[in-house]
Each structure stands twice: as C-alpha cells, then as structure tokens.
Specification:
With about 350 residues, the chain is an all-alpha fold. Helices cover about 65% and strands about 0% of the residues. It has a domain of about 220 residues: MetI-like (MetI-like fold), CATH 1.10.3720.10.
C-alpha cells in the first residue's frame, strides 16, 4: 500500500502542477491583464500607461518566473521607485522591506489579495468553503442514501414495474440540469405563481443560519441531479451481482431473499457506485456554481463566478487550486477504497 500511495501522490502532484499552470496561463493572457490594469486604475488609461502599470507590478516578467513566484518556489519581484521607496510582491503595505519574506506563494500559504473583495484571499476561501461545505454535506446526506436505496430496489427486481419506474425517474433527474430543476422547484414551491409558498426562493439567509425553509430547495436541486446517476450505477451493479453463481447457491440453501441482498450482494454491488459517489465531490464543487448563483448563496461557487466576472486573477487562481486538490484527493480516496471494498483487488 505504501509504494502505491507514493506513486499516486507523485502523479497527483504532477497533475496539479500541470493543471494550475494551464489556468495560470489562461488567466494571464494579455486581454485579461489589460482589463485588470484598467480596473485597478481607470478605463481611460492609454496603452503606455497600461504597459507601465503592468511593468511596475511584475506582470511583464517571463511567464514561468511569475508562475514560480505564485507557487512560492521563486523569489518575489521587487522594484524601487524614483523616490527610493521599495515595493514588491512579498512586501505588505507599510512593511519594512528588510523584514519582508523572500518567497510568498501557495507553498507558503500566501494566496494574495483580492482586487474585488479587498481582503486576503485565504480568509475569503476559508470562509466561502465553510459555507459550501455545509451545502455539500447536506446534499451528500440526502443524495447518497436515497440513490443507493433506489438502485438496490430496482436491481433486486430487474424488469419489474418497480424497476422500470425507478429507472425512468433516475433518467429524468440525471437529464435535467440544475438550472432547470432549480427554477422549476422555485416556481412550484417558493413563488406565488402556483401558490405553494413552502420554502424560500433564496438561500441568502442560510449563510447566517440554516433552516428547513431556506435550505431545502438548494439541497434538493443538487441532490436530484446527482441521485439519478448513482442510482443507475447501483442498479446496474446490483443486477449483475444478483445473477452471480454464489447468489443462486445461497438461495438454494434456503437463505432468505433480504439476507441474500444485505449480506452477500450489497457489498459487491457497491464497488462500482463507490467510485461514482467519490466523483460527486468534484462535481458538487462545480455544480454549486449554478445553484449558489441561482439561490444567491454566497459560497465557493458564487465567489468563483464573481472572480471570473470581475477578472480577479489571484482569487480565480486560488479557487482553481482548491478545485484541483479536491478532485485529486477524492480520486486517491476512491482508489484506496477499492482495496477495502473488494479484497480481491491487489496493488501490484
């Protein structure tokens, strides 16, 4: 297990470096830098003024060097003004340049300063991730058990009316995107158009305190979309397991049908859905972009939209790092979980 974890960790690090470099390159294209300059200065800046601002703030250095500065493996840039004042990437507002750090990047926990929210990015990310974490937790608590139950019940009786009905429900939920199901749920359960004002059409108040009224619709919107996919995978795996020889042997020995399902079939049937369940974590992180914007829940997804819309390069890069790490960590957990779910799997 040890060598396997080391290999997977090494591959994950290389993947993270490649992905973050691609994002760094795309966010630092010339049109984005020009927009950033005019946002920080004024929209009437000339090309010469734009070029001067970018030069003074370290954006005219080679791309690889700037990427190294952002990671924290290359020394941060410094410059001296005409009046002798020293400024640089690692020098805070009124900090003595002599006491400033040489390296200040991701590896040092320095994510930079948001040009939109006007505060430290680390504080923004930690606060917004906590809000999104609550949403993801309740979505998983709702989605996974219901999806497994639907898949198991459908797979136990392949070809029956129950199977066809649950399979149709799963396909409908999976084929309906969040921005459609969210609007439909708002119209039915939160607007005066239908008259069922059971829930609130916004989740803004949920940031201060979660209630059944302000948090049900966002959770239901995300859970419905992911539930169908997990249920279909569970149903397919359960159907295959129920036709296995050892299941027939157990039935011939007189073992009751519920006992066969719970003690023999369920564990093997959950191997394939386990990977799908782990893949829901990175999907949830991207899916919250739509749901949080739709319901005005100012979490990680809402922040990502604001960073992209306002060309907040440093915040956008930090959000990409979080997303990449979440995907890689969940994939590693998925690989490890395979070994524990199925002892026949060996790591060579």
């Amino acid at each position: 297990m040890g060598p396997f974890l080391l290999r997977r960790a090494g591959v994950s690090v290389l993947t993270a470096l490649c992905l973050t470099f691609v994002v760094f390159f795309l966010t630092n294209l010339e049109p984005n830098l020009e927009k950033l300059t005019k946002t920080q200065g004024n929209m009437r800046m000339t090309d010469a003024q734009v070029s001067s601002w970018l030069e003074n703030n370290g954006y005219r250095q080679p791309l690889l060097l700037r990427y190294g500065e952002w990671l924290g493996v290359a020394p941060g840039w410094t410059r001296t003004d005409a009046d002798g004042k020293v400024a640089g990437r690692c020098i805070k507002n009124d900090q003595d340049p002599a006491s400033a750090a040489t390296f200040c990047g991701v590896f040092q926990g320095e994510l930079g300063f948001s040009t939109v929210f006007k505060e430290d990015i680390w504080d923004i990310i930690s606060r917004k991730l906590a809000l999104t974490g609550k949403l993801m937790f309740w979505v998983m608590v709702t989605m996974v058990p219901m999806a497994i139950i639907i898949g198991v019940v459908a797979g136990m009786r392949e070809g029956s009316r129950t199977d066809r009905g649950l399979s149709t429900f799963s396909i409908l939920t999976t084929s309906t995107p969040e921005y459609v199901s969210g609007v439909v749920l708002i119209v039915i359960f939160a607007s005066s158009m239908v008259g069922l004002k059971w829930f609130k059409g916004t989740a803004a108040s949920a940031m201060d305190g979660l209630t059944f009224a302000n948090f049900t619709l966002p959770v239901a919107t995300m859970a419905l979309y992911g539930m169908g996919y997990i249920a279909r995978m569970t149903r397919a795996s359960m159907t295959e397991v129920m036709t296995a020889q050892y299941i027939r042997t157990a039935r011939l020995k007189g073992v009751s049908f519920p006992a066969v399902v719970l003690k023999h079939a369920l564990r093997n049937a959950l191997i394939a859905p386990f990977t799908v369940i782990m893949l829901q974590f990175p999907w949830l992180l991207t899916g919250v972009v739509i749901v949080e914007t739709l319901f005005n829940y100012k979490g990680f997804g809402w922040t990502l939209v604001k960073a992209a819309g306002n060309n907040d390069i440093e915040l956008l890069l930090s959000c990409s790092v979080v997303a990449v790490l979440l995907v890689l960590v969940t994939q590693l957990i998925s690989d490890i979980g395979y070994v524990f779910l199925n002892p026949r799997i060996r790591v060579s």
